[in-house]
Amino acid sequence: MSTPVLQLDNVHTHIGAYHILHGVDFTVPQGEVTMLLGRNGAGKTTTLRTIMGLWQASRGRITFDGQPIGGEGQRLSTPEIAQRGIAYVPETMGIFSDLTVKENLLLAARKARTVDDLDTQRLEWIFGLFPALKKFWLYPAGKLSGGQKQMLSVARAIVEPRKLLLIDEPSKGLAPAIIQNLIGALQELKRTQTTILLVEQNFAMAKALGDSVAVMDDGRVVHRGRMAELAEDEDLQRRLLGLSLAAHQ
Q1: What are the residue boundaries of the ABC transporter domain, all occurrences included (predicted)?
Q2: Domain positions in the chain
Q3: Per CATH, which fold does 4-85+162-241 belong to?
Q4: Is this prediction's pTM over 0.85?
């Protein structure tokens, strides 16, 4: 297994009076796609938001690229964490509906003031992943379809090189054909050795993309291993997730 780019050790998160994460432990190996799976309400989104500093870990330690970024001893702000090289694609997509596709990407490129400052080669690579973004380059993002908005959300996260992508349920609400297109784009991204932590309820996508997996339940990680092993073990799937991957192909 590769060297971890991200490590969570005994991470607890409180939101107001509620204790949501109860000692979360897992690693994200460099250059791999790590799936974070679990039933609704297991704590997956809270985990991503805690990594990004949107909610602060009340106990434990989050280490990124060998340096502490959250928890005991070091609590960086969300902008500081982003500057370290982590991009977050939230479940809500986080795009600006009144801005064009071009303006959304430009805003996400921290080093670019105008579109001429964007890395042309990287932009063409993004258009190769998501051709619709080139077609609708000057359209307001709010007029895009759900799938196109999701593509824009991912494109914003990769418009500049990042060390780690956190992606929360990218297939939610999308039609099967659009999901297949998204899987293809993320597989291409995976071939570039991009490190990804991916929360996903679509198990065909989890099987197609995942290298390693952490399964959460009630704010804890209850299983860690290789995604291929989980995909082959229906009894383990039912025990951990209450269903089998075979039923969701």
Answers
A1: 6-243
A2: 4-85+162-241, 98-161
A3: Rossmann fold (3.40.50)
A4: yes
